[in-house]
Amino acid sequence: MTSRRFVLALIAASAFVGQSAGPVVAASSVSSATSAVHPAASSAKWGWVTVRRTGASYAPAASDQGNSTGGADTVEYAGTGTVIVFMNGIGDPGGTVEVSPLGRRDRVCYVYAWGSTSQGGIDEQMGVICSTSAGTLVNTGFTLTFFAAVADAGHLAYLEADQDATTEYSPAAVTSFDSEGGANTIHREGPGDYLVTLPHLGVSHGDAQVTQDIVGANPPRQTEPAGTAPMTPCQVLTLYPTAPDETVHVQCHDLSGTLTDARFTLMFMDGEGLKGSGHGKVAYLWAKRPSTASYVPASGYRYAKPSATFRITRQGTGLYTVTLSGMPSGGTVKLSPTGLDAANCIVGSIRASGSPQTIGVRCFDLSGAAADTYFMLAYER
């Protein structure tokens, strides 16, 4: 829906079609700058990055990036609030992307588009735009994770919900995956209110992450229209089994709290991390006691590989510290607010050195005021 899209500088759209302009490094120059290591055909592709520097192109520190091939990830600044992330050697026509803002202020970051580069599809490129709550593009840090699955990916699913006003549909196969082989479906209950069904994955726990999506995978040769609009954040209301399937209830709101149609990406995991089956240095939890001073999430709502000790500490209204003892320093985090109250949660901090791993979480209501809320968190290193 064009009326809710943000301004995106033409420079960013040009970069996605392999053209170079201004400070952006074209896909061809980035992919040739490092030696690509290609994953085995039977392996899932994953990559992540924590972008701490804003307003500049750079290569993140080793503790702030990961890639299933061991290749390098790079960050290209494409204009105010607009960044393109390149991941070496994991180009894929589909997969999924999840993004969270990183910092101290109430911000929202969206997936602009993603897809394999024009240079033989070797690398993956993902566009991210970040704004204030009023829709003004602004430079900010963010976290990003990419995942493209195969049949042995584990107990998980993902999809791109790209028909925001359609009552019932199945997402495109290239950006939809269910580890049990079923076809994911989306039912629109009403404006901004969606029930996502993931076949044969029904459990009463697990983790779900959602990110608003503006264009989607493999974008056409196009630019965004001029204009600004307020953000439409999406969150996981809840998840629950509808035997034998899993249902994830997603809602998207405008700043007044009114349910509003929006596109989004979603990834669900149960006993697996953001990397899929067989990989370690991953964890997730569901924080469901927002006003409790300090607690350990219930066993059904946490997972770590290797094992870790969990604790959530409330430092103040909407301000939490999540401790993952046993997880390494560095890494990245994806957050999704959950529950009945419309909210926005951002990553306040990720410990880059030392131990234990501690993650700061900041949550806000739609007016931008700090607010206690439930949230789901997924970590990988």
Number of helices: 2
The computed structural class is mainly beta
How helix-rich are the residues, as a percent range? Answer: under 10%
**Could you give the count of β-strands?**
26
Spatial order of the strands forming the largest sheet: 3-4-7-6-14-17-9-11
The H/E string reads: HHEEEEEEEEEEEEEEEEEEEEEEEEEE
Spatial shape: globular
Task: Work out the strand percent.
Answer: 35-45%
Weakly predicted, low-confidence segments? 1-42, 219-229
Largest sheet: 8 strands, mixed
Distance between the termini: 35 Å
Q: What is the C-alpha radius of gyration, as a whole number of Å? A: 19 Å
Mean pLDDT: 85
Can you tell me about this structure?
The chain has 381 residues and is mostly beta strands. The chain has a domain at 282-380. Helix content is 4%, strand content 44%. It has two helices and 26 strands. The chain has helices at residues 10-16, 27-33; strands spanning 45-51, 65-67, 73-77, 82-87, 96-102, 108-116, 124-131, 141-148, 156-161, 168-169, 177-178, 185-190, 193-198, 207-217, 234-242, 245-252, 264-269, 282-287, 294-295, 302-305, 309-316, 319-325, 332-338, 343-350, 357-365, 374-380. The strands form five sheets. The chain has an eight-stranded mixed sheet, with helices on one face. It has a five-stranded antiparallel sheet with strand order 10-12-13-16-15, with no helix packed on it. The chain starts with 9 loop residues before the first helix and ends with a strand.
